[in-house]
């Protein structure tokens, strides 16, 4: 039995999704990040990712000639994170899209605005995300949450004067 064009089409990617991926690459933060294909929706993989995070920095020191360094080791903590879904949806009436060809193509416009909103939300969540906050339980933990109470957090007792 021959493969039909309809079946072959299911094995290809729409041009539209390539445009969206390209739009996300225009964000400086997202462009620098390496994303791992940990989620496999066809099976054989979980929606969780496990990695080791440095939880305690090791020290460095000077030593005198003919003496040894004091041994010190960095500490690791195993972290498990779950997949967090980010995006949005919109609706454009098919009559407006197909027959009202005014100044703006509504589908393209809505996609562009969704991409902008998604990039802005990702950047904010990258810094401020807190999955333990009851108002935003579906977000991932941002840098502020991750470094809280760690060796890398600096919390001065008073405001730092940058003048």
Topology readout:
Elements: H1 5-9, H2 15-25, H3 28-32, E1 48-56, E2 75-82, H4 94-99, H5 106-128, H6 143-146
Antiparallel strand pairs: 1-2
Question: How would you describe the overall organization of this protein?
Answer:
By secondary structure, the chain is of the alpha+beta class. It contains 6 helices and 2 strands. The radius of gyration is 24 Å and the shape is elongated. The mean pLDDT is 79.
Compact summary:
The chain has 163 residues and is α+β, with helices and mostly antiparallel strands.
Report Rg: 24 Å
- Uncertain segments are none
SSE string: HHHEEHHH
Number of helices: 6
Specify the helix fraction band: 25-40%
- The secondary-structure class comes to alpha+beta
Q: What does the average pLDDT come to? A: 79
- How many beta-strand elements? 2
Q: Largest sheet at a glance?
A: 2 strands, antiparallel
Residue fraction in strands: 5-15%
Strand neighbour order, sheet with most strands: 1-2
Through-space gap between termini: 76 Å
- Which descriptor suits the 3D outline? elongated
Any key phrases for this structure?
163 residues; alpha+beta; two-stranded antiparallel sheet; elongated
């Amino acid at each position: 039995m021959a493969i039909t064009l309809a079946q072959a089409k299911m094995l290809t990617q729409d041009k539209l999704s390539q445009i969206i991926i390209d739009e996300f690459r225009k964000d400086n933060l997202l462009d620098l990040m390496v994303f791992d294909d940990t989620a496999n929706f066809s099976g054989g993989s979980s929606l969780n990712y496990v990695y080791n995070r440095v939880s305690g920095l090791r020290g460095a020191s000077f030593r005198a000639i003919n003496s040894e360094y004091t041994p010190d080791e960095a500490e690791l903590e195993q972290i498990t994170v779950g997949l967090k879904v980010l995006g949005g949806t919109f609706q454009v009436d098919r009559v407006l899209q197909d027959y009202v060809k005014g100044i703006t193509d509504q589908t393209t416009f809505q996609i562009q605005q969704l991409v902008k909103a998604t990039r802005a939300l990702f950047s904010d969540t990258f810094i401020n995300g807190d999955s333990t906050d009851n108002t935003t339980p579906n977000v991932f933990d941002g840098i502020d949450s991750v470094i809280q109470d760690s060796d890398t957090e600096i919390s001065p007792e008073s405001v730092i004067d940058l003048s």
